[in-house]
Amino acid sequence: MQFCNQSLYGGITLGIAIDSIKSKLNCEVLHDELAFEVRWAVAGDSIVLQLVAKLEDGEYMAFGPSGDNAKTQMVGGDPAVAWVDKRTLKGFAEDYYLDAKSQCAGVRGSCPDQRLVDNTNSIRLLNAALVNGYSIVTYQRSLKAADELDRAVLTNSSQAIIWAIGPLNSRNEVSYHPHFTKGDKLIEFGRPPVWNCPMPEEDDEPAAAAPQREPAQKQPQPAQVIKPNPVPTPKPVAKVEPWDIPAIQCYEPPDGVFYAQMGPTGGKQGYSAITGHVGWGISWYINGLLIPEINVVRGRKYTFVVEGGSNPDVPARYHPFYITNDPVGGYFHKTDKEKEGVEIYAGVRRTRSGALTAVGVGRLCNWTPAQTGPEADEFPSFGAYQRSLTLECEEGSPGVVTWTPDRHTPDTVYYQCFTHRHLGWKINVLDECDAQEADESRVVQAVALPDDLASEESVQ
To answer: What share of residues in the chain are helix, strand, coil (percent, to 5)?
Structure first.
């Protein structure tokens, strides 16, 4: 069966009559609403797969073996991440290893194999196209695990798989995905071909007339064209208006104490709409607010009570707090080139060797959504969304970061996570503050600092 050079179903000839699709290829629906399908054929010691989905610009689709053959498990999974750049029409298929449920930071998290070990991209891109709004990517991989970052594709039994659809971040790497495998999904890759998808449409365009030669000559029938399954064309996506989250003014809180905790990004109206960056589904909450802008005054001392996690062995639960001139964050995993021009004003200490180590480390507190209830995008305001969250804290003590901005501090700096990118937002540094007293517009959690941490200083 010809599957490579003529393998794209989206309007490109496959050379297989539509009536015989069911006897030639496998197909399974992964997400009906987005018309996300996986199609495949086993060929010798390799497997050719095709992912088809209705994606928005800048989104990826991922599919591959689960981290556990018997159940769907993201950690340890070996997916291919595929997308088509809608500007250049160039296709991509990258081999990933999912070390943890967090963004790729250094050698931990959800990372391309190539970021972890050289020459370990075991995915071979065969073709890619955009057809009628569908992203279609065809790729090939070995049935066996090609290296220590891969998992084998089983052909003698059912196997659990994982899939996801989400936005690419600024590095063209995966970020938090709103659509993903729920429950256990198993596929028998070695089965006889079964087409468990809606049947594609036939090409309704008439074939070009052949030149007239001999009257008795019979022209060959044109090969059938397999198109993606029909899905109603979506309406143009309206620009998402970010939630109106009040800034923390220069005169509040009166004691200059801020509580830095973790929480969800708030869907499309939250982090991404406010900052213009793609996050990982978690972000800083300051005094119970999702990434508010903070206004501070030069010469005044501020204290940040940090509850972002203290276990570096679990990247998804470890978020040291620091203040920097860098709008991206994640200083710990930056290259030497990326660190050029980056200043850190609080949250780190320099060791005798000259290395910087984070001191903004404490127990983990999470603003947690209810397990049942509306999704974040269904809330009309942040205030309504905030009332659906519950603060859950682990045992342990918070960390403390102190900071006194001075005349050398830029007018705009950022509070960030030392080990992950794009979790925080802006701090506006002012020369003076209108000393007007204002009614407290927000309830701020009051927590006494532990005696052994109250005097802890970070090196500026």
So the answer is: 10, 35, 60
SS3 per-residue string spanning 118-175 = CCCCCCEEEEEEEECCEEEEEEEEECCCCCCCCCCCCCCCCEEEEEEEEEECCCCCEC
Please tell me the pTM assigned to this model.
Answer: 0.65
Instruction: Collect all residues with Cβ–Cβ distance below 8 Å to 83 and sequence separation of at least 6.
Output: 55, 59, 60, 61, 91, 92, 135, 137, 168
Torsion of CA 246, 247, 249, 255, to 10 degrees: 90
Report yes or no on 235 lying in a domain: no
**Residue 402: which CATH number?**
2.60.40
* Cα–Cα dist 375/379, whole Å: 7
Per-residue pLDDT tens digits for 83-124:
999 889 999 999 999 988 888 887 888 999 998 898 999 999
Domain assignment present for 366: yes
Residues 302 and 174 in one domain: no
Give yes or no: residues 283 and 162 share one domain: no
Clarify whether residues 32 and 173 are in a common domain.
yes
Contact 432, 413 (CB under 8 A): no
If DSSP codes are grouped into helix, strand and coil, which group holds residue 114? helix
Q: Could you list the residue range(s) of the whole structural domain that residue 341 is in?
A: 257-430
